[in-house]
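Cross-check.
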Amino acid sequence: MWAFIIPSVIIALDQILKFLANKNLLPTVGDFFETISCNTGIAFGVQLPSFVFILLWIFSIGIILYLLRLEKNNLALAVVLGGAISNIIDRIFHGCVVDYISFLNIPTFNLADTAICLGIGWFVFNSFFQKTHNAK
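Predicted model, tokenized:
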């Protein structure tokens, strides 16, 4: 159940923030929400061929199918899924991903990008450090 509630919350929050950013309604806190951009590439504006975006769709569908088959929820993948779907929604309706967070000298990003990075980090961490229980 949580595997589908968490992505829904991430999608809703990110889409609300993107809407507010597009309407210039986000409060500027220092340089935090100062820059709004339309990213046609992937992370950090890297441009890739169109087939890569098809692979991202396939990857998202794969995560959904994996989450449906798990006996327990993998919350890290649910966080990744929420970010991925939110950015896919942007590509469908805007032709690009709306980025609205400016921080230090990091390229502009959004909540969905943050969810993807944190979810992947969490998944990798769990893969290396999660205790396995062997039946004896």
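The first helix runs from residue 2 to 22. The mean pLDDT is 82. Passed to J.P. for a second look.
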